[in-house]
Amino acid sequence: MEFNDYYTVLGVVATTDAKAIKAAYRKLGRKYHPDVSTLPNTAEIFRRVAEAYAVLHSTEKRAKYDAYCAARRHGFIRLVRTHASGR
Description:
The chain is mainly α. 69% of the residues lie in helices and 0% in strands. It has helices spanning 6-10, 18-32, 42-57, 59-73, 76-84. α2 (18-32) runs antiparallel to α3 (42-57). The chain starts with 5 loop residues before the first helix and ends with a helix.
């Protein structure tokens, strides 16, 4: 499973407020919407932008995502996966 940094996808930083996240989503949504854009791979890019917004827009999902990112930075995710697989 590939890790997608939702903050990078939207072009914002982790301390960005909800209003700025929405503005970034709307800007990228207009740019990459498959019905509007003639750029290649717009459907995939738009899907990633929408997924990032869905997580970062919700305060509950964003808190879980931030906790996951912190654990990933400190190497805890690898330990959990190794332990869970029985190795």
